[in-house]
Amino acid sequence: AASTGEWGTAGRNLEKLAGRHPHIDWIVFVRATVTTPTDSDAGERLYLEAARRFEAAGNVRGEVLARMNLQSMFYQSGRIGSAAQQVERVISLAERAQDPEIRMRARATEAQFFVATGTKLGRAHRALQQAEAELDAVPTYAEATLRLATLRREMGRPADALPLLVELLERDAYHLDALIALGHTIPFVWDGS
Asked: pTM of the entire structure?
């Protein structure tokens, strides 16, 4: 949905779908995702609704994903305290999650938040290590690896990102373009050997 009109059309179609299937919580989440680029206030309300609905249904995955988006929106709008509350809720949910991808995403969100705010960097480092420990069990390995390599770079450890990127390339050459793009942002030191 590249243009505003396409986002609007998608939003209207999802709204109709929600009217026909009000019991499907994921429709609210997708509506939030589609609405946010053109109306962040409405997108925020929909993510809040999705988080509440997922919480009521005991859907940990859905609640974590909705709250991760809320955390990002709150942080970007300068509501750091609200963003921190979402991070804490995401972490508390992830601690009891059976899904390694949810645990990895939650820990990566935690690390990214504390790096971005320049606070609790030790906690950010531990969260990154915990996220990396889940990496092999995550079905979206390539996406997760790129995210964690980026976090290592943001934490001031660009050389530590290299082994993750090399491993990803060895496992999945399909992502070479993404690795090259990320590599342009990582200043690696060549020792002449």
From this structure: 0.73
What are the φ and ψ backbone dihedral angles of 185, each rounded to 5 degrees? Answer: -100, -5
CA geometry: angle 153, 157, 161, nearest 5 deg: 60
Distances (CA, A) of 153 to 10, 30, 85, 160, 185: 36, 31, 25, 8, 9
Distance CA 69, CA 140 (A): 18
CA 145 distance to own-chain centroid: 12
Residue 118 main-chain phi, psi, to 5 deg: 70, 25
DSSP class per residue in 6-38: HHHHHHHHHHHHHHH-TT-HHHHHHHHHHHTTT
Q: Are 128 and 107 in contact (CB under 8 A)?
A: yes
pLDDT digits (tens, 9 = 90+) for 95-119: 888 888 888 889 889 988 998 898 8
- In the Cβ-directed half-sphere of 21, how many Cα atoms lie within 13 Å? 8
Closest CA to 115 of 183, 107, 161: 107
> Measured between alpha carbons, how far is 6 from 101 in angstroms, rounded to an integer?
31
Count of beta carbons in the 10 Å neighbourhood of residue 76: 11
